Amino acid sequence: MLSLRSLNKQYERGKSVLSDVSLDFPAHGVVAIIGPSGTGKSTLIRCINQLVEPTSGEVWLGGKELTKLRGAALRAARREIGMVFQEYNLVERLSVIENLLCGRLGYVPLWRIWTRNYPESDIARAFELLDRVGLGDFATRRADALSGGQRQRVGIARAVMQSPRLLLADEPTSSLDPRTSVEIMTLMRDIAAEQNIPVIINIHDVALARRFATRIVGMSAGRVVFDGPPDELKDHHLTEIYGGSASGEWIG
To answer: Where is the ABC transporter domain (predicted)?
Structure first.
């Protein structure tokens, strides 16, 4: 469903952030991308939805080569990719329900956005998703009045509002406490299964990756050094990914 072909990214000439990354992702399940800070995980996620343009290589989604799309064609393709951000990326002065409806911006005419006159079907869907993420009583509350976990629940619901073919998440638990992190990962896994949406998660916490992912991709220095199911990820793989337990990033 999603294919990356020889993906490379350099922000500075001669300094590769991604080096010859080739991966195929199925149309189901949860894939966790792990690795130390600065190894290219976030860049990889952003190359998939073209928030970052790769230096070379190809990104294919559902038979379309995203790296060749521009303008309206690229905007239409991005509608099919939901994104959950590390820092939530909500419009804090808007209400929770209005933030969810932002997930429909690529589908409705501009006049509806300016007047906040969304179709009744979109409004009903937004309330349905709010109930699903446990925030049914928070529809009219401003986003800046929510806790971190509640904000991330809104972010997940907003991404699903796009009716995406693929859901990306960039460090969705890094700002959350351990209990809330488990709740958010459980919610993402379960909603993805219910909606039949494959998920790719960039995550630091190896324990969470092992618990919730059906497949783990380990990266080091911009390259894929492990690709397999969680039960095949051993300590020697983690040493190759993180450079030894002294880093402390994957202990526990």
So the answer is: 2-246
